[in-house]
Automatic annotation (TrEMBL):
Pfam family of the protein (one): ResIII
Residue span(s) of domain Helicase ATP-binding: 172-362
SMART domains reported in the protein's UniProt record: DEXDc
Gene Ontology CC annotations of this record: cytosol
A GO biological-process term: DNA restriction-modification system
Gene3D superfamilies per the UniProt record, alphabetical: 3.90.1570.30, P-loop containing nucleotide triphosphate hydrolases (3.40.50.300)
Transmembrane segments: none
Protein name (record): DEAD/DEAH box helicase
Keywords (A to Z) from UniProt: ATP-binding, Helicase, Hydrolase, Nucleotide-binding
This protein's record includes keyword Membrane: no
Length: 940
């Protein structure tokens, strides 16, 4: 209806919601309480005035709705006194008791209070409750929140201390009516058992109606179902499923006769949306893979699953998939929420209102003997660390990424690659072989009790984390070859494995074979493999929580009997630790809590291009295309980029990406709007809005115009395929560092101590050291010759000392210190390549000029930026472009030669640009002061 005021709009929205929830809405002058179970009468008169809505169930008044316009949503709690007065008032013609169910609503935001609760407290609800629900609630002598006070003390027999703490604190949280609670328990400490125990108590003592156990992968749902079916409470000899119904949802149908429902969050979302979901969509964590719209498709009310269908939701792995699109599932239900995780991040703490009822991390679990500790064994190879080069003209194998089809090709230019490109752009079988061989050779040292009298070594259960399925295939081939074993010795466990992944996983957990399993991500979380004793990381992990989950595969305890029975019959001791073999630097790499940025990871590049060409120009689609092109730009060679431009009307990939991102950039759109409003000032508002809409559409059309050319689309798809993996069989890898991390730490300490003792011994003899130790070093000139002299003395007296190894030693020491003290520091700068700069960097660290290991040239860069900013701040001088160019040249010279003097301006790079005379022309009588000031500032 047009021209409605805000109050009328709010009431129309409330009417629609009430009708959807099964209420019949009537006018106070024409009411019929026999028309249905639930009747909502507008403007019903009370002894203090008309109430906006009075709710009747089975002809009896039970509740009040106080309606407010949408703008009042931020102040709904201030209306509670008013709605409470109506609830306590006498209704016209009735001698009623106070009405227990009270809502305040704008039609967009609704709050609800059950005044029968102990300490009644309002809460946000998605919509209104059904009349049938009120009938059920009123038939019970106590409300759910009151019944939570009736839960008896926890019997502790058979429970670990951490489980007792979690359940006891959670039940107190329930009694305090806190809507959300977070349980942090280390992987392997019994999170699911803890959850089933408190679920059992909620059903038995609090008479909870239904409880939803929410997971984010089908695998976790199946495991949870198995644990529910195997659970026996310590106060009842019957199985859980003999007492309560347990249903794992695998279709859109929800039976209403169970007490526990297990579902993936994506299935519950599809049920609320009344759409079908293929089981394949439940195989992977949706936060990592599935389509995520910037504007989530809103969940609407579903009368088959009303908001009160569940009383509690238990969210497993709650740090992962309860945000963005999926959060709506949790917002929909009127429930208590309990999160379970081993690795919460700040987001998780925030979502659960910082109500951490259990804080039982890995370290505590190890101390209690609930989990086993681990040792780290490093394998570092030359190529994983420094990469390599395949020379032009070499005949190399190339392999299509998906089909793995090979073909020969001669390189037409040198192919240099870094360690990070391994197993993505470049496959070096020698690197994989070197790591596997080093692992095989060192396992007997790690597990000396596994060798029999004939010298036969029994390989412990070992899990390898690979980068991709293709990488996993390469690893499996080499593992079988290097260990001299048959197919069943090493198998792959991934979502795309040819064998049923669950059966292979079952074999790995319980049978002798396979001894070694290779996975990409399937068993990173939620899988109990007690006999597992070694984790080999051949892929890096940037997510802190995901890495902790991956490590958690090895943390579980295992008795000697179970270890022997489930695959390692030669074991002589129970599992008291596990080993992480770090072959990729995963222990040292920076970890974050970030998540993928791509919006449409499930679509191929070809499909994205076709969609855009067909007119799908949504923000998600254009953002995804931009993201794919950015990645492509990093891979293409110059000649390929030139071809792209020729087919894209002369635009570079960067320019095309910029247009795609600008199409929906709020700042760009806002600037266009301001421009149009300014240019059309005085014209009809409708014309102005039409022009703004047209300008927005033109931005989008300009962004996608080049993709109407099929030749460009074909070129992008074909050029992506061209970049197949190169198989580097030319460069043979070798181990550069191997051993236990604690041994590395001891060696690093010894190296640092030796260097510090040498410095201390010579600090009064060598000029460079005197300057470093002098209190007035700012006023002393450290020259290139001094550092050169120091370096030559060091080489003569300590010929075995390598400065690059000394840098690594300091890095090891700092990493250990940061880990022990939980200090956060900025990422370390790259190791200087020039020996003298490296020496100065180390000296600054030793004497305390730099708190953390920092490349001297980077220190100089930073100090120069600060100096230049201060010099030009406020009313200070303003350097010209030419002056700044010369100042930067001087800065770069200092970074490599430690000071700059007048004679140096006769040398490169200064002499090529005019030398000292040009410097005088630029700075005049300030020249000497500038040289002196730069030397002092940059040396500090």
């Amino acid at each position: 209806m047009l021209n409605q005021n805000p109050e009328q709009i709010a009431r129309d929205n409330i009417d629609r919601q009430l009708m959807a929830c099964g209420w019949i809405i009537q006018d106070k002058k024409k009411f019929n309480l026999a028309a249905g179970l639930g009747i909502a009468i507008r403007e019903y008169q009370t002894d203090i005035g008309p109430a906006d809505y009075v709710l009747f169930v089975d002809k009896k008044p039970v509740g009040i709705i106080e309606a407010k316009r949408e703008e009042e949503g931020v102040r709904l709690t201030t209306v509670e006194d008013q709605s409470s007065q109506y609830a306590n008032a006498k209704l016209r013609l009735l001698n009623n008791d106070p009405l227990p169910f009270v809502y305040e609503s704008t039609g967009e935001v609704t709050r609800f209070t059950d005044y029968r609760d102990p300490k009644p407290r309002s809460r946000n609800v998605f919509t209104f409750h059904r009349p049938e629900t009120f009938v059920q609630w009123l038939s019970q002598p106590k409300t759910l929140r009151a019944r939570l006070h009736d839960i008896p003390a926890l019997p502790v027999d058979g429970l670990r201390d951490c489980q007792i703490t979690a359940i006891t604190n959670l039940e107190q949280s329930f009694r305090d009516q806190k809507p959300k609670a977070l349980i942090q328990m280390a992987t392997g400490s019994g999170k699911t058992f803890t959850a089933i125990t408190f679920v059992y108590r909620l059903l038995k003592y609090a008479k909870a109606k239904r409880i939803l156990f929410l997971v984010d992968t089908k695998n976790l749902g199946e495991q949870a179902e198995g644990e529910f079916r195997a659970y026996t409470a310590n106060d009842d000899n019957r199985l859980f499923t003999e007492l309560y119904g347990v249903t794992r949802l695998n279709s859109s149908f929800i039976p209403n006769d169970s007490q526990v429902y297990i579902s993936t969050i994506q299935r519950m979302y599809s049920i609320l949306k009344e759409t079908e979901l293929d089981e394949s969509a439940e195989e992977e964590n949706p936060n990592e893979r599935a389509y995520q719209s910037k504007e989530p498709i809103p969940v609407g009310y579903n009368e088959k699953v009303p908001i009160e269908f569940f009383d509690f939701i238990v969210i497993d792995e709650c740090h992962r998939s309860i945000y963005n699109l999926w959060k709506q599932v949790l917002d929909y239900f009127d429930v208590f929420q309990i999160g379970l995780t081993a690795t919460p991040d700040n987001r998780t703490f925030g979502y659960f209102n910082q109500n951490l009822v259990s804080d039982y991390g890995y370290e505590k679990a190890v101390i209690d003997g609930v989990l086993v500790p681990y040792n780290v064994f490093t394998i570092e190879t030359e190529i994983t660390k420094n990469g390599s080069v395949i020379k032009m003209g070499e005949q190399v194998d190339k392999r299509e990424r998906l089909t793995r089809k090979k073909f020969w090709e001669a390189l037409d230019e040198d192919e240099a690659y870094s360690g990070k490109q391994l197993d993505k752009d470049i496959v070096n079988p020698s690197t994989i072989r070197t790591i596997i061989k080093a692992t095989k050779d060192n396992l007997p040292m790690m597990f000396p009790d596994r060798v029999d009298s004939n010298g036969h070594f029994e390989v412990p259960k070992l899990l390898i984390f690979a980068k991709t399925d293709s990488h996993a295939e390469d690893i499996i081939d080499i593992v079988r070859e290097e260990f001299g074993e048959e197919n069943k010795f090493c198998k792959k466990i991934t979502y795309r494995s040819d064998e049923d992944p669950k059966s292979v996983l079952q074999q790995f957990r319980n049978d002798y074979y396979p001894r070694i399993a290779v996975t990409v991500d399937m068993i990173a979380t939620g899988t109990d493999i007690r006999p597992l004793e070694v984790l080999l990381f051949m892929r890096d992990v940037k997510s802190r929580s995901y890495y902790e989950q991956m490590k958690g595969r090895g943390t579980r305890t295992c008795s000697l009997e179970e270890l022997r029975a489930k695959g390692t019959p030669m074991a002589k001791y129970s599992k008291d630790h596990f080993v992480i073999i770090d072959a990729i630097g995963v222990e040292q790499s920076q970890k974050t809590d970030s998540r993928p940025l791509e919006k449409l990871p499930g679509l191929s590049l070809k499909d994205v291009l076709q969609s855009v060409a067909m007119g799908n120009t949504s923000e998600d689609m254009l953002t995804t295309l931009a993201n794919r092109l950015i990645r492509l730009d990093q891979q293409l060679k110059d000649k390929d980029k030139q071809q792209f431009s020729e087919k894209a009307n002369g635009l570079t990939i960067t320019q095309v990406v910029k247009k795609l991102l600008h199409a929906y950039d709020p700042d760009v759109i806002a600037n266009d709007e301001l421009r149009i409003r300014s240019e059309m000032r005085g014209q009809a508002p409708m014309e102005i809005e039409k022009a703004i809409t047209k300008a927005n559409q033109e931005l989008i059309e300009q962004a996608v115009a080049v993709f109407h050319n099929p030749d460009l689309r074909d070129f992008i798809v074909d050029i992506r395929k061209k970049y197949d993996q190169i198989i580097d069989v030319v460069n043979i890898d070798s181990v550069t560092k191997i051993g236990w991390v604690k041994d590395h730490a001891e060696a690093a300490t010894a190296l640092i101590t030796d260097f510090k003792q040498w410095i201390e011994k010579h600090k009064d003899e060598i000029t460079a050291l005197q300057i470093f130790y002098a209190q007035d070093y700012k006023n002393r000139s450290l020259t290139y010759k001094m550092i050169k002299d120091l370096y030559e003395v060091l080489v003569v007296e300590k010929p075995a000392l390598k400065l690059n190894l000394l840098w690594d030693a300091f890095a090891t020491e700092e990493d250990s210190e940061a880990a022990d003290t939980l200090i956060k520091r900025a990422p370390r700068t790259e190791k200087p390549k020039q020996e003298l700069v490296l020496l100065v960097s180390l000296l600054r660290k030793v004497v305390g000029q730099d708190e953390w290991l920092t490349a001297y040239d980077k220190t100089v860069d930073l100090k120069f930026q600060e100096w230049a900013f201060k010099k030009q701040a406020g009313a200070g001088i303003k350097f010209t472009v030419q002056q700044m160019h010369w100042l930067r040249m001087m800065k770069d010279y200092v970074a490599n030669s430690f000071c700059v003097e007048k004679d140096d301006f006769d040398l490169p790079p200064f002499n090529a640009e005019g030398g000292l005379s040009k410097l005088w022309a630029l700075f005049g009588d300030q020249t000497d002061a500038i040289i002196k000031e730069l030397n002092e500032v940059l040396a500090a």
